[in-house]
Fold this sequence. Notes:
13 helices, alpha/beta
Amino acid sequence: TKTMVELHGGQILVDSEPNAGSTFSVVILSGNSHFLPGEIIQSSELPERKNAGRISAGNPSDKPQPVKESIPGAAFEKENKDGSNRPVVLLVEDDADMRTYIRQELAGQYQVEEAPDGKKGLEKARKIMPDLIITDVMMPELNGFELCRILKEEPATSHIPVIILTAQGSMERRMEGLETGADSYIAKPFYTRHLKIRIEKLVELRNKMKERFSKSINMNAQEITLTSVDERLLQNAIDYVRGNMENSGLSVEEMSKKLGLSRTHLHRKLKALTGQTPVEFIKMIRMKQAAYLLGTGKLSISEVGYKVGYSTPSYFSSSFNAYFGMSPSAYMDEKVSGRKEEKEEAK
Length: 347
């Protein structure tokens, strides 16, 4: 019997005769026009290694010896940082083949950064503040559990979702991974679709949390109450701005020191949690507090301006108008007339 199997890049022909044997013929198409762009790897992108390791996972001892990073950092950043808003995924994995495989699978939807071990992964996470981290467990320098524990304990990185990949899929190891604060635990070998869905859902969840935090902060400043590690950081930031509200020289540098973060990390943290820069965050708290005070009708416009850190009434009025789309006097009149109408209706 003769059988032909169609492949993406060619065909396999099988000519089999009972009690006589079988002949297998492989036909490979020439050129690369039949491949999709994401399926083509240039020779300059291939990792330097003596022996190619397996992509699928086995025992940690079966892995190839640690090799150089598969993609030169500068070349990789140039390839991916195209101005798009793709989420940034940091892949921490000592198996170069596994890194290459996962990167190719995710490259179309995410900007993928890499690190060959836990120590370099921690350094890179602190530097680039990715949207999500994927890490193996068995790695030199710092294993995946230790990496996850440190990331979740540090205020600057505690909000970053972490997916742990491991060949050790026992329930005990799963529990250990989750106890470190990991957001997901996937046993090797895994279905690529499973990994992609987990990444998508965790990034989506983080965006929803950002939305929720932003909405909470956009309430009247007097009404905000937040909890948890990330929320406590936001609460501390809000408390700091409130406590220094009248200081017209309130600075991001001083605020970052008080919160125990560098200016860069504070910027990235607030941007990740609220979508706002520290300067925008400070202005928003001031404006919301100004609106609250104007709404009470107990202070004049100039007094409210001084209360929220503006040195001149004119500067306060122009800032308020730019933020709310109306002058402080119009806002106050609207609130006062609204209260009068409510009282009359109550009668």
